[in-house]
Design a protein that fits this description.
Order of helices and strands: HHHHHHHHHHHHHHHHHH
Structural class: mainly alpha
Largest sheet: none
Number of domains: 1
Number of helices: 18
Distance between the termini: 22 Å
Radius of gyration: 23 Å
Helix content: over 70%
Length: about 500
């Protein structure tokens, strides 16, 4: 199968997974919020985030594992793939032990003495914390298996198992009704642990049956490979700490100054964004193996074209999906949740979505930097920019600024990281200047046009269902026209038109 057809097939499978997951996730989020309440919902998002913060080592190793597996798969030598897998699994086991120690010492102290949790819910929060630790350790050890599946581009299994996982989480909603005499927050976190355990077992069984040679575990010592993995992940570590500081770290700082209500608002805003961004991430997941392997095969022209096109189409897709939310945020949130919205939720949702527009652009550049491999300067630059988020958030909250301003700072820092990432990758790959100018012009003209469109429509203050629907349809049509006229090359448009006509005739 050609690389183009493989990407198309993988993308379709991932989108089927995502659409089903999205529908179920939106329903379950609404019911879980109603069953737990704003306070407990905020506690869960906060406490689970403490454990996630300690898993930064694992996040760094994830990118390293996927990168090295993709490189060795390009060589088509299974023994080398197996060596990477085994060494990666050894390292992940070590990481899980470190996460356990950090969580049960610093994490417990921070949870009980620093976080702003109501006294009557502290016992439940500790149960959630312990269940979250086990869940995180399970997910850490799963990473090499997950990376093997993605590196081999077995997107059908990845898609089907994702649907199974979402359905199991839906079942949790109904199971909660059977345990009404117990603490709903504790039961919810325990059931999520069981779901993760089941999915983890399925991942391992699939890998052992389908990639027996690649995933047959045996202990061996390879100091050179060990150093390469740790060296790569060591610099990735800076980037992962920075990313977590802008999410979980910020979540905790806001909790200290404001309380669990703001954590509930931020948790819901991130869920809305996660649903929208899953469209983009699924498309990028389908392209990522080709981006890495094209660089490993020294096919730099294909690599550069894939990076720019994936970046451009990622942001176009995200704009099309997010414009209804940006136009009618409060209306859609009330329609979805059916409850009184937590304070700051509307503003948080809009700001997080704007931040994700930037993330959609930079995703392929991050994968390109990983493929290049020499990431010390790259990670140092990105990390130093993003880590400014924590001290700035603390200072501004101490001065009495609204959390909305703090979230806006995060968007500005994300924009700074885009500039740095683009310049770094361009320096390494030496893009042709006309291609760079065309890419920047197409991408940012469409983004700015979208923002102007949203601003103009929001100025027309008609609060009715008819206006909400008609303005959204009009905005989508205008945006699609702008993408065709500004964001796509003529030959790309003609090829797309030819393909559509061919499909219709069939």
């Amino acid at each position: 199968m050609s690389s183009t057809k493989k990407i198309a097939k993988n993308t379709i499978l991932l989108y089927i997974r995502m659409i089903i997951n999205m529908a179920i996730s939106l329903y379950t989020s609404r019911i879980i919020l109603q069953k737990l309440g704003v306070e407990d919902f905020g506690i869960y998002n906060l406490v689970a985030g403490v454990v996630v913060l300690f898993s930064f080592l694992n996040n760094a190793m994830t990118s390293a594992t996927q990168r090295f597996l993709n490189i060795e798969l390009a060589s088509n030598i299974k023994e080398k793939v197996n060596r990477v897998f085994c060494m990666s699994l050894n390292i992940h086991i070590i990481i899980s032990i470190i996460v356990l120690i950090l969580s049960e010492t610093i994490g417990l102290w921070f949870l009980n003495y620093k976080l702003n949790i109501p006294a009557h819910r502290l016992n439940a929060a500790n149960f959630v914390f312990q269940f979250s630790i086990i869940t995180t350790i399970i997910n850490i050890i799963r990473i090499p298996f997950n990376a093997t599946i993605l590196a081999n581009e077995r997107m059908s299994f990845y898609a089907y198992l994702g649907i199974v996982e979402t359905v199991l989480k839906l079942a949790i909603v109904f199971l909660l009704s059977l345990f009404v005499e117990y603490d709903q927050l504790i039961v919810y976190s325990f059931l999520l642990l069981l779901v993760n355990l089941i999915i983890n077992v399925i991942y391992k069984i699939y890998c052992y049956r389908n990639f027996k040679e690649e995933t047959a575990y045996h202990y061996f010592s390879d100091k050179k490979l060990f150093r390469e993995l740790l060296s790569f992940s060591g610099w990735s570590l800076f980037g992962q700490v920075a990313v977590l500081s802008s999410t979980q770290g910020l979540n905790m700082i806001m909790n200290i100054f404001i309380g669990v209500t703001v954590n509930a608002a931020l948790g819901i805003a991130n869920q809305v964004n996660s649903v929208l961004y899953s469209f983009v991430s699924n498309m990028q997941v389908a392209f990522n193996p080709q981006i890495t392997q094209s660089y490993a095969s020294n096919d730099l022209e294909t690599h550069k074209r894939l990076v720019l096109n994936t970046s451009k189409y990622s942001v176009f897709l995200f704009l099309v999906l997010s414009i209804p939310i940006l136009l009618h945020t409060e209306f859609i949130l009330k329609l979805w949740l059916g409850v009184n919205l937590p304070q700051y939720l509307v503003s948080f949702t809009q700001i997080v979505i704007i931040g994700s527009i930037i993330n959609a652009i930079v995703g392929p550049f991050w994968m390109s930097a990983n493929a290049i491999g020499n990431i010390r300067n790259y990670q140092l630059g990105v990390s130093l920019i993003l880590l400014l988020n924590l001290p700035l958030a603390y200072i501004f909250l101490k001065l009495g600024f609204s959390p909305v301003y703090i979230m806006s700072l995060n968007v500005i820092l994300n924009l700074c990281t885009f500039i740095f990432r683009f310049l770094y990758v361009n320096h390494k790959l030496k893009y042709d200047w006309p291609d760079v100018v065309l890419y920047l012009k197409q991408t940012f003209l469409v983004i700015f046009s979208c923002f102007i469109l949203v601003w103009v429509i929001k100025k027309i203050d008609f609060s009715s269902y008819f206006f909400a629907i008609s303005s959204t349809i009009a905005a989508e049509i205008i945006l699609l026209v702008l993408i065709i006229l500004i964001g796509i090359k003529r030959e790309e448009y003609l090829q797309f038109k030819k393909t559509i006509i061919k499909k219709i005739k069939k």
